[in-house]
Design brief:
69 residues; single chain; alpha+beta; globular
C-alpha cells in the first residue's frame, strides 16, 4: 500500500483520464488544461512517446491560454 501512495503522489498526471476523443479514426485522446479565452493546441510525440516531459511548460502556458494536447 505505501508504494501505491508514493506513486500517486509522485505521478498524479499518470492517472488522469483524458478529457475526450477526437472524432474519427484513429481514435485520438486529448487533454485540456486552463480556462482562458485564447486556445493553444499542441501536437506532440509519436507512437509510444509520452507527453509527460512537456507538462511543466504547458502548465505555465495554461496561465494565459487554454491548452489542448
Amino acid at each position: 500500500m505505501p508504494i501505491i501512495c508514493l506513486i500517486l503522489f509522485l505521478f498524479p498526471m499518470a492517472l488522469k483520464a483524458q478529457d475526450g476523443f477526437v472524432p474519427g479514426k484513429p481514435k485520438l485522446a486529448y487533454w485540456k488544461i486552463g480556462s482562458k479565452e485564447e486556445v493553444t493546441i499542441v501536437i506532440h510525440g509519436g507512437p509510444g512517446v509520452t507527453h509527460d516531459y512537456l507538462r511543466p511548460e504547458w502548465d505555465r502556458l495554461a496561465q494565459s491560454a487554454t491548452v489542448v494536447y
